Amino acid sequence: MRYEYITGNTAIAKASITAGLKFYAGYPITPTSDIFEYLARELPKRGGHVVQFEDEIASINAAVGASWACAKSMTATSGPGFSLMLETLSLAVITETPLVVAYVMRTGPSTGVPTRSGQYDVLQATYGFHGGLVIPVLAPSTPQEAYDLTVRAFNVSEELRTPVVLLSDAVVAHTYGKVAVRERGEVEVVDRGKPSVSPEAYRPYDPLGGLVPPMACFGEGYNVLVESLTHDERGYYAPRTDIQRRLMWRLYRKVVESSEKLFDYSATHLDGCEHALVSYGSTALSARAAAKLLREEGFRACSVTLRTLFPVYEEGVAGLLKGVEKVFVVENNVGLYFRELRGVLRDKEVVSVPLIDLDMPLPQEVAGVVKKWL
Amino acid sequence: MRLEILIAGRGGQGILFLGHVLGKAIAEHTSLHVLGSETYAAETRGGDSRVDLVVADREEEADFIKVMRADIALFMHQLQLDAYKDLVRDGAVVFLDSSNVTDVPQRSWRVYAEPYTDIAEREVGTSRVANMVALGHLVGVTSVVPPEAIESAIREVVAREWVDVNLRAFRHLLRKGSA
Fold it and tell me: How many percent of chain A have pLDDT more than 70?
């Protein structure tokens, strides 16, 4: 391990190599492109491949294909590009393809202010694709978290055979920070489960009593079917209610029932806290500084930074904020993740603090809004 | 401990490079935590250039990444001193390039003014390293980071043929600062 002074985007790129990235496909977009540039330079030296495709649709399709050839795969994009990727994200869900999509949010909608920040896409990250399931969304607030959560995103995608969205934003992307950079062997790296049966006995979508089927790749001697239609355990198209039910519930449960294991957060001054400022991504730094300002004025304020946004671990969030009187959800949009938390914290006063800012909301502004409710 | 450092000047004065070297030295050669952000204009020359560094001994103290009340500030040009002086707290240590700054507001700052640009040109042979002359002064006075850490960072970042001239510039006011 060594400390490096790098940006959030560079942290994602470096961590992806440590986590075992072998194939990156992408199309340049601000504020994401420096992930691509770093990997184009460094990944080939580590035995991986980097390809620029004609657009984001081709990029994510190539990443899905590479994952089926057993290469840990990633693509990175921002709002307009993610919108194009959604159809294939759905394909990755039903084919249970391990894949990491680094989504660096910028000001939207559409081209908005391409170089500046925002958190408008927090719900799109998990609800955007069609099919009504949930994919894990991890959100870093600092370059160090960008590094750590990238490794985690790869591990979760492998363990659960699911696409994972690493949801960063333009501020985190270009903020420099002291980052503990680790080599292979210094972090836990999870690889997808492999079949332990003979090729004749292998059924590619049979979870064997669990929720995640072992995954054979192309070229390993197994018959592999990558089927986007509703399929049975063999991977054969099966347009039947009982099969659809079984498949949907398994795909849903394998992610949602992992919510406790995936739950990740940091908190300051939670003991005796009356007013909790809950936030995520770069805005969490504003919230943390605002809580400090409020404490200086005598309020019992604390801050909670959520690093896992989806699936929501309801008991975990509720337990964390059990002793708190009021919960303020601070975010750089019109108040989107607030809706998730309000549903979880039904016995509490939950206040939305939506502060739209091209960079980060100022701590003074956050504290000012919160104080009106105290 | 939490320290806010503001570095500002005009595009072309090496502000971002100075901030990068300082941030890198702190991050990679001390036990302190640091977050840094860069602001620059679309123009290559002449616009606002600014680096904000938040330095802290505990990671959670390195929170909001923009300077709100700078403890240490360096202004390489009058325009940025005028623009950002309200971000500098009373009692702060302020460094000024007196080659480009003439009008200093009446504040309770500890002001250190030297003609960094003139010194760089006269003593080192090129005004392009005025930023390193200023950094040497800042490090000498504030001891925010050991000089050896800055020199290591310079050696790691600068192309080999330019290392010596940057080191000479950095060392020029270093001792003057610590004396």
Answer: 100
Mean pLDDT confidence for A2-10: 98
- A:B CB pairs within 8 Å: 69
Q: Which two tokens stand for residue A297?
A: 């004025």
* Cα dihedral A173, A177, A182, A187 in deg (nearest 10): -70
Q: How many domains does chain A have?
A: 2
Inter-chain touch B63–A266, beta carbons under 8 Å: no
Q: A161, A181, A201: which is the final residue of a domain?
A: A181
Domain B2-178 class in CATH: alpha beta
Both tokens of residue A142? 């600092």
Q: Residue A241, Cα to own-chain centre: how many angstroms?
A: 31
Domain CATH for A34: 3.40.50.970
Query: Could you list the residue range(s) of the whole structural domain that residue A120 is in?
Result: 2-181
Distance CA B71, CA B2 (A): 9
Residue A213 maps to a domain: no
Handedness of CA A9, A12, A18, A23 (dihedral sign): negative
Q: What is the CATH number of the domain that holds A292?
A: 3.40.50.920
Which of B36, B59, B64 is opposite residue A363, by nearest beta carbon? B64
Q: Which band of pLDDT confidence, cut at 50, 70 and 90, is reported for residue B177? A: low
Among B26, B31, B35, B86, the strongest candidate for a mutation testing the A interface, having the largest count of A CBs within 10 A, is B35
ipTM over 0.90 threshold: yes
Q: Is the pTM of the predicted complex or chain greater than 0.90?
A: yes
Q: Which of B64, B87, B145 is the best substitution to test chain A (most A C-beta atoms within 10 A)?
A: B64
Would the CB atoms of B28 and A360 count as touching at under 8 Å?
A: no
Pick A4's closest partner by Cβ from B28, B32, B63: B28
